[in-house]
Design brief:
iron, iron-sulfur, single chain, alpha+beta, globular, redox-active center, GRX_PICOT-like, Glutaredoxin
């Protein structure tokens, strides 16, 4: 991976409280996993930003190396890698994702 892509990813992760690297956009997700991740974030009322990896091949490949995680989407909260859509779903169902967001000031209390 290029140092440039690594630096851009690092900057994005650190600049946003909640950041989802996904395929597509929140309105038009390009895969089922990205769609599910957006649904979870929306249901939690999270304030989040997204990066469409399909728009930048460097980021698409680089994010997998950055997190050492092979799939997209990838969720970051306050600079920390949380996981992909399966982990998000497990955490959501267990109530852990809401607690994580509430603890980080990233979601509205509900």
């Amino acid at each position: 991976m290029s140092d440039d892509a690594q630096a851009r990813i690092d900057e994005l992760v650190k600049a946003n409280h909640v950041l989802l690297f996904m395929k597509g956009t929140p309105l038009f997700p390009q895969c089922g996993f990205s769609s599910r991740a957006i649904s979870i974030l929306d249901h939690l009322g999270a304030d989040y930003e997204t990066v469409d990896v399909l728009q930048d091949q460097g980021i698409r490949q680089g994010i997998k190396e950055y997190s050492d995680w092979p799939t997209i989407p990838q969720l970051y909260v306050n600079g920390e890698f949380v996981g992909g859509s399966d982990i998000m779903m497990e955490m959501y169902e267990a109530g852990e994702l809401h607690t994580l967001f509430a603890g980080k000031g990233a979601a509205q209390a509900g």
